[in-house]
């Protein structure tokens, strides 16, 4: 790698930002148990404080996604100011369409128009909140689905969803993006109304250019080639962003890149390749994880490091050599171009980028030294017990 | 089917009993939400009352599995008397090794001897409870595992498990059975200490003849041939029982037979074939489900009907014709022997068996007519809100 | 079921036709071995003769799909006349884009324009053959994909595919349909260029109204809800047809309905529900199986019986009662409407339909009695040995 | 890493040997097509020549596994001498129990005693061949299974297998090892007689100490934690060896480590941890792949590099620091110990080891420079066409 190329890689690393989720700083768990972590954030202010620390340590996490109503506050101007004071700002606003008693059989797809109305109103409220906090992104995950064959009419549910989404889309502010997430299963176990990228794509296309597909890396059947889906959506110019996490089995919501680092690299390989095109699309890189047994803040920093590691390696791919090998039908030669980049130890490169940004080259070590964990463990008593798997439950 | 054979099938159906789980009568849910069902049982007495109703309606559910500490009471003699008054008795006692804060990193496999001690003590207490309620079965599910590579030493955990299980085994009352369950994943997401039947089998063999393997039908990787595992364990004379439920994706805990009725039939086909042998082993047939959106009691009756339906069809298999076709290498002829039994509508047969038992031929209709659902909805106000996925959480 | 309803069901069963594949009558196998079946058809004439027998026995299989070049002949007029003499006609024409040495790295997506040209020419030839045999259907399965990350540029391959498909589409005769199949994996093992329904859908939409999506029931990840995909494609008015088969693991190409009969019923439940709409689309029901160890003709008849069984049960679903239960949020009541239809033994109904058509009520028994199997075993000596998994190899 | 530690790692790398398979040097493919590779080896002599080249280039592949009858020769003394002259020797002898017409319904589990006899005789012949070539290893993969429910009696098949294996075991030479492989599915699609490690383990235990379990890395359900199974078998002192390959979907038989390099590292992490014990067991590291589209020899060298890369990283794990973090319940700290080793670029280390062995530091480059590929492409005309997926077919 020549000096100019190294410089270019360093600058790209420094420019690349990641959005962290407010809910990743609080306690969460499985259906069996929520283990409390000493000092876990209990409200939006504490979550923003933790997120701001992650940003100070990594330099690349200026935005924090919020979840309504978990993070709901009365005075959004005050929230904005508070966040700004910490050096961060609000990113995507995530409606919650799964925790009301009314949502037993769904929200936007529910058979009862009154429940659909309630769900639409909630998303409209989130759009208002987004406006209030200067966010331009609504990130929509639908827990809708059924548990038994025949429980509801699958096509009727699709029609209801098309209607309610159209109403939501119409209410978007100009320039605001609606990111539509899909998920293979859970919490519904027979069918999920938006089960795969094809369904999210079809609905986004019908809605219009402000609608985009959101890829959650843990929401696919086993074996799915994620890099291929990303390449396809990029080529269709409809990829809006990511919810990053990792898994071995189902939607395990583990630290991104902790189980399949090569897969994460291959996803970034597609993103970097597409980014070199003239009209590279805006992609939002967001973490969405459930830190069940890990220290929350450290888990978040670790996630950022994994993403940066995958991105840096993807930047190192020798694309000219790759194209030549591909054109020559040199299967293993082409593979080795990727593999070479993956084998490279990019920790020195990332450390240099951080130092150039005035940061500690090792954010985990800096965090451990900071005393922050002990302090919040002392100053934030556990707010509840017997809690369920998700913060708002 | 001749009259003698029909009589034999009817008598087998009438003799075949199913154990229902106390926790299946209470509210439960996913990590995202527990939806409250009006009238859901809130304590052991109510659960026993509901279970007794299921037994009165179906005639085949005389035992109720309990979960400690969810169902813990001070006076077990009183519980026994109460159950007996309702016409049921306590079945398997299920320890809970996943809901204490101490169990963040496991219970019987935990790195800390003090936590392992706590876990062993809890199981020993369950053995005492089993004695007190005249139960001869401890049903052990271990939620132990890790979420990240390296988190703990896999072989050290195995050693700890062998030690703690040996201590538990030594404390079993004479004739008491220890049923060892395995699970592919969840709530641990990197590895599960008892991940498959082979691990449960290996440990049960080391412990001795009172240890048996428990098959939970939802705890396997996709595609796994359950009937084959059952046949293998039967042949090894180490199958102890079942936790019945169904799933499409992960461990969905849906109503047994609701997603893959043919698979359930194939499992029973192996059980019926093996039962004709001179020394047929004791197998405990237990339901273990999580009724997230369904009415609890109706879901339990439906489950019983599905099991009876699978069992009745398996009884109809013409085993002589099957053997002949198998010996002749008649692949499709042999397959059709099973298929013929499966295609048969066994509802009239089951209705006749119920009538011979003095029951309503349609337990669901009888339940709906009974007014019980309305009554408990009125008399059992919701005991909690914002609850998590599992009753004790 | 009233008499009028029963009559309506019987007439529907008699009208419902299934296309059988020429390749299902010949030897096929796995990568490990092709077992020769005595009397297996060795050329198009013999395949048509066998298919005609299946039609004579079942009354519902008037069309035979062909595969080019496996079934290539010089005089298509003669083929047409021969088929007509047997009482059948040619159905879908299936190009072969995977068995030329040139296709090592793909066909329509190959990096080399010359190979793409060759592939396009082959499909254009198939369009000519379709015209010659009065078929209006091209059924396109693409084996294209890669085995290693980096082997080729995923987006470039998509562009090539869009180009070559556009050229093919432009050459379709008026009213001719291009059915685009997708497959999760195999024979490519890193990525498949048309990996899921979403990719087939996207390309079909771009091509125009003569392009439709073909669902092969064995080409999905584990757990996939097939009925949901079918409902979605029906609602989008882009479902063109099926390749029926069954599997437990990968694309096992076993007899349709032999592993998951309930799933097949649920697919037909969606089809029957949609068929009651004013503008029901044309759907081609085709079998696509690999009979590795089974007698070929008997396997085909068995497949037809399974499809009819699933279809008949779907016709029995009480849709009014279903809608009412769904509207009432009666999860288990709605489920039982489907389950009741599934539990019904439809063999008498199918036997009656056959008798009304002048057929033997038991086509398998009639086939076994006919002596046809012995005759072809005698008159058709094995044409080759050491053959590979697919007929043309 | 200190100098002493580095030295120790280098010596371990130099000592670590890998067995390559004769069949990996010939043409192979899928059920759809075998693509011929110019110069692919056509017989045992050519395979040994290619394997010897791989050994000369890598320095760590002194043994070549053979497959009977694919590699059968009349004069095994001559084969031994020929191999010795090339600097290699014969490793495991692999019987073939899947390519005779008689094996349609199985081999060692076949319902017909005459077929079982044939299969046993073949394995006994392989034992004789092993003696003749001074090999002490029989590597047994069983393709036995069924395609349809009911096709055969699952327990009867188990009994037959126990009988035939006992006969084989009794015929082993003293010190000879019988490695028993298992496979989730394929070529059987309903059930596989040895479907998982638990079945292989159970039978190996019954046979005696010369029987060991062979882990083929591609023979597991999706999501399976391979490192855990390896740790369990190591702890049970019954792991005999590996068949290395990689896959995304089914048993894809791709280059080991090419899809999931982190998983391969985690497997080696368990092996290295166990190797430090006093009585480290003998483990045979063997490659078993199907090079469908790749250049055969280059694919084999690439495989060796991947294995060495995973092994080297596992050697770098700081086991003291790991234990400390594990004991402290420091989930992410422990994880990072593994991750740090994995992030390390071990190419320089491997290059140094090769140079110390007098080899080119880059075996792929050396191979490409050697002209060997061109030469064999010229001197080895294709021996057959229209071939099937496996060399002997």
Task: Describe the protein.
Four copies of one chain form a homotetramer. Chain A is α/β, with parallel strands linked by helices. Chain A has a single domain, classed as TIM Barrel (Alpha-Beta Barrel). Chain A has 14 helices and ten strands. Chain A has a five-stranded parallel beta sheet. A three-stranded parallel beta sheet of chain A has the order 1-2-3. The longest helix of chain A is centred in the last third of the chain and has 21 residues, at 296-316. The mean pLDDT of chain A is 96. The B-C interface holds B 222-223, 225, 248-249, 258-262, 293-295, 298-299, 302, 309, 331-332, 335-336, 342-347, 364 and C 222-223, 225, 248-249, 258-262, 293-295, 298-299, 302, 309, 331-332, 335-336, 342-347, 364.
Q: What's the short story on this structure?
A:
By secondary structure, chain A is of the alpha/beta class.
């Amino acid at each position: 790698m020549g000096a100019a190329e190294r410089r270019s890689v360093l600058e790209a690393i420094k420019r690349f930002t990641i959005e962290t989720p407010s809910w990743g700083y609080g306690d969460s768990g499985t259906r069996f148990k929520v283990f409390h972590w000493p000092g876990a954030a209990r409200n939006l202010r504490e979550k923003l404080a933790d997120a701001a620390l992650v940003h100070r340590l990594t330099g690349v996490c200026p935005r924090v996604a919020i979840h309504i109503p978990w993070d709901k506050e009365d005075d959004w101007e005050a929230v904005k100011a508070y966040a700004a004071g910490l050096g961060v700002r609000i990113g995507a606003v995530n409606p919650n369409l799964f925790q009301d008693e009314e949502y037993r059989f769904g929200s936007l797809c529910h058979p009862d128009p009154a429940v659909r109305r309630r769900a639409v109103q909630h998303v409209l409220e989130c759009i208002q909140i987004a406006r209030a906090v200067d966010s331009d992104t609504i990130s929509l995950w639908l827990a809708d689905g059924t548990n038994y064959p025949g429980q509801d009419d699958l096509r009727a549910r699709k029609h209801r969803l098309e209607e309610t989404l159209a109403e939501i889309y119409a209410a978007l502010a100009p320039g605001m993006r609606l990111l539509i997430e899909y998920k293979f299963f859970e919490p519904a176990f027979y069918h999920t109304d938006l089960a795969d990228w094809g369904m999210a794509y079809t609905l986004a296309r019908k809605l219009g250019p402000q609608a985009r597909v959101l890829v959650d890396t843990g929401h696919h059947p086993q074996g799915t080639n994620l890099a291929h889906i990303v390449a396809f959506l990029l080529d269709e110019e409809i990829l809006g962003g990511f919810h990053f996490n990792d898994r071995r089995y189902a939607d395990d919501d583990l630290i991104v890149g902790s189980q399949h680092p090569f897969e994460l690299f291959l996803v970034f390989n597609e993103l970097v390749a597409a980014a070199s095109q003239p009209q590279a699309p805006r992609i939002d890189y967001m973490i969405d994880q459930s830190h069940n047994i890990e220290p929350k803040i450290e888990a978040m920093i670790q996630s950022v490091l994994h993403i940066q590691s995958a991105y840096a390696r993807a930047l190192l791919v020798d694309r000219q050599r790759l194209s030549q090998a591909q054109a020559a039908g040199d299967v293993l030669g082409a593979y080795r171009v990727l593999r070479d980049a993956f084998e490279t130890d990019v920790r020195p490169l990332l450390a240099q980028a951080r130092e150039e940004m005035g940061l500690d080259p090792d954010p985990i070590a800096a965090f451990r030294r900071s005393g922050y964990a002990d302090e919040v463990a002392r100053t934030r008593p556990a707010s509840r017990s017997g809690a369920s798997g998700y913060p708002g439950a």
